[in-house]
Structure formats: C-alpha cells, structure tokens
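sry for the spam today, last one i promise. struct tokens for design, 379 residues
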C-alpha cells in the first residue's frame, strides 16, 4: 500500500472513530481484519528486516479510565505525548461517560499526533495500548482503536499492563535500575519489587487506593475532582495534627477507615488541618510499609511513581525513608506521574525488543490484570 493511500485510510479511520456513538466504526475494522488477518496471525512477519540496529518507534494509546492519551516514542525518547482528561461534573468517574469521553477525544488526539510526526507513519514499528487493568468500557474503546491502527499499518500489537507501565516509566526516565517501587495512584497502591521474571507485590492496600482516599475526602469537602492536588494545597496551611486511625498490617495497609474518620471531622475542625492530618497519617503508613520492604529486600533504590507521586509531602517523606535506609531515591517527573500514553509506548519499546506481541484475536482486554500476573520478559 502506498503512503498516500495509507494516509487516506487513516483519515477514513479517524472519521469512523468519530462515529463511535452510532457504532458504525467497527465496520472499518471488519474490512481491515479480512484484508490483514493472515499477516497478523504471524506477527513476526510484520517487523522490518533491518530492525537489528534501529531504535523501535512505538505508537502508544492510554485509556484505562479518565485519560485519553496518544504518544510516539523512539527508543527511550518521547517524541510526542498528547492527552485529554475527563473530569466528572459531580462525584467520581462514571465508566460509560468516561468511555464516551475517550471515544470522542481519541480521533483528534490521533490527528494531532499524525500531523506532528517528524517522519512518515510507515516508520512506526508497533502499536501499544493499555490492555488493563481499568474500567471495562474505557479499555474496550482503547483496544478497538489500537487494533484498528495496528491492522491499518500492518504493524504488531502490544498489550501493556498499565501498572507495569507506571513502573517502567520510572526505570526508563530516572536512573533507577532494580528499585523498590512505591506505586501510588487513584486505583492502586502497591509496593513492587522484581524477582524471577515478574514484578512481585510485597504490600498493597487492602481496600481503597491512596489517591481514591484523597479524592473521596476532597469530594466530601466540595473540592473539584481529582481531590488529591487540592488536598495537598490545603494541607500546606494545616498545623494541627488531629487524631485519626493508622492501619498497617505487615507491608499492607488500609485507608477507608481513616477517610471515614476524617469526614466525621468536617463540621468540627479547620479544613486545612483535616487535609494536613489525612496526608500525615496516610503517608506515614506508606512510609512505614516502604521502610519495612526496603529493609527486607536490600534493594539499592526507591522509586515513587503513579499520579500521587506528584505530591511534594509524599516525596519528602519517601526521601527521608530512602536516606534512613541508605538507598537512592527517585521519583517520576510531575508531568508524567499521572496517566499518560508515553509510559505505554515506552513499555511497548521494551516489549517490542522481546517480540512480546499479541494478535488481534488474542487481544481481549483484562480489567483486573494484576501487576504480579504479567510475564516480564524484558527486565
Ligand atoms: P491507576 O490505574 O494507575 O490507578 P489512575 O486512574 O489513578 O491510575 P493516575 O493519573 O495514575 O490515574 O493517578 C490519579 C490520582 O493521582 C488521583 O487520585 C489524583 O488525586 C492523584 N494526584 C494527582 N496529583 C496529586 C497530588 N499533587 N497530590 C496527591 N494526589 C495527587
Ligand atoms: Fe495510572
């Protein structure tokens, strides 16, 4: 297929994706699928023969919950990274509304990426997408677009675990090689360490994630979603440490009790003090669990990643833990801490190097795909 007709097809695909609401867009996929199914069933045929000394160029899609992201990376270099984030008008994230948001924004994001690509679309070596964990309707929209583009470009498809991508991002853009990882986000809070082919979870939340805890209190205080950054801002002027529950079990922890207790203080105490106290208690629990994990494993570095890694107080506490344990401390940069497609594409590079591909027929989404269920062939 010539480049021109490929561009025309891409335009057609973008237009079709825009029709996501009336369900007309899968038709184009069916057409593409018939054309290319044979090649896709043997993904190895899709790789350029001169790949050996080339840095792979990966097109990545993130779409597990609130963020629609599209990125292009070459090796470890982020070339383009575009995103749009859904903010629910009221309450938490509604899965159907979030998926409609993704369906609406992916076409324009893709168009921007293609328009700004410093090379031909043909140079893209593979298409990576966030396969899970996440909200089912969001994952399906993202996977469908990634499959369509993979079929269109006749390039292999890579199914990336979103949580592992938060970790890989840190291992790629900071000097951390084999760190103890504290991954803190809206849906997950895990202490992760690599051993024998997999990322093992040494400790994790037994109920809600730290970001969810902050966002829940934020909602009760009438703060905009997500509450995390607003709580951080308010906490800066808090002075009084109010008594709250502190729940840790070995290297695992729990946050729903502390949030309920903090909520009960809303009409009685100063908002800044409540925010300050919630941060101090929850982050101290994380610090204790992390310290324990470090002393057990003897890792030489600590990596803080995930959306909540943007919090300066959490960073300060983790820096102290690292100093106490005589290990190096690394944190992902603020602009890449939250969900983004660059981390999916960068993980895609590592998986590409190991030819860790899936065919369209194998590419069902995994909404509950745990970090410790991923075969990490590339570490
Ligand atoms: P995951 O699937 O990894 O759980 P996620 O949907 O939670 O992903 P992320 O973008 O990784 O998405 O993290 C979002 C969370 O980060 C939200 O809970 C948000 O409140 C929190 N957050 C962002 N900035 C800050 C901050 N400065 N302080 C505290 N929390 C923050
Ligand atoms: Fe995330």
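last one done:
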């Amino acid at each position: 297929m010539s480049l021109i007709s490929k561009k025309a097809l891409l335009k057609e695909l973008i237009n079709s994706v825009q029709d996501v609401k009336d369900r007309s867009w899968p038709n184009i996929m069916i057409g593409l699928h018939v054309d290319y199914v044979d090649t896709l069933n043997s993904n190895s045929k899709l790789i350029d023969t001169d790949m050996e000394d080339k840095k792979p160029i990966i097109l990545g899609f993130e779409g597990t919950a609130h963020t629609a992201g599209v990125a292009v990376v070459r090796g470890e270099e982020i070339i383009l990274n575009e995103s749009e984030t859904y903010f629910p008008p009221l309450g938490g994230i509604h899965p159907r509304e979030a998926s409609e948001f993704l369906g609406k924004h992916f076409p324009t994001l893709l168009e921007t990426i293609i328009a700004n690509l410093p090379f031909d679309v043909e140079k893209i070596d593979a298409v990576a997408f966030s396969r899970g964990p996440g909200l089912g309707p969001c994952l399906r929209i993202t996977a469908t677009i990634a499959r369509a583009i993979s079929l269109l470009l006749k390039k292999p498809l890579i199914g990336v675990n979103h949580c592992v991508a938060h970790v890989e991002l840190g291992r790629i853009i900071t000097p951390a090689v084999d760190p103890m990882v504290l991954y803190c986000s809206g849906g997950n809070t895990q202490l992760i360490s690599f051993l024998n082919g997999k990322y093992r979870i040494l400790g994790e939340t037994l109920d809600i994630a730290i970001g969810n805890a902050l966002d829940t209190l934020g909602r009760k205080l009438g703060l905009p979603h997500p509450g995390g950054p607003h709580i951080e801002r308010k906490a800066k002027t808090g002075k009084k440490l109010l008594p709250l529950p502190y729940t840790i079990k070995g290297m695992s922890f729990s946050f729903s009790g502390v949030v309920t207790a903090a909520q009960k203080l809303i009409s009685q105490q100063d908002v800044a003090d409540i925010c300050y106290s919630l941060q101090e208690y929850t982050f101290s629990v994380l610090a204790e669990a992390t310290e324990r994990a470090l002393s057990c494993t003897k890792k030489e570095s600590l990596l803080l990643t995930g959306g909540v890694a943007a919090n300066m107080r959490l960073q300060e506490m983790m820096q102290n833990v690292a100093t106490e344990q005589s290990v190096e401390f690394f944190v992902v940069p603020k602009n890449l801490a939250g969900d983004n497609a660059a981390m999916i594409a960068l993980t895609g590079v590592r998986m590409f190097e190991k030819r860790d591909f899936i065919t369209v027929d194998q590419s069902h989404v995994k909404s509950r795909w745990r970090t410790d269920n991923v075969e990490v062939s590339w570490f």
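The chain is about 45% helix and 20% strand. ok im logging off now
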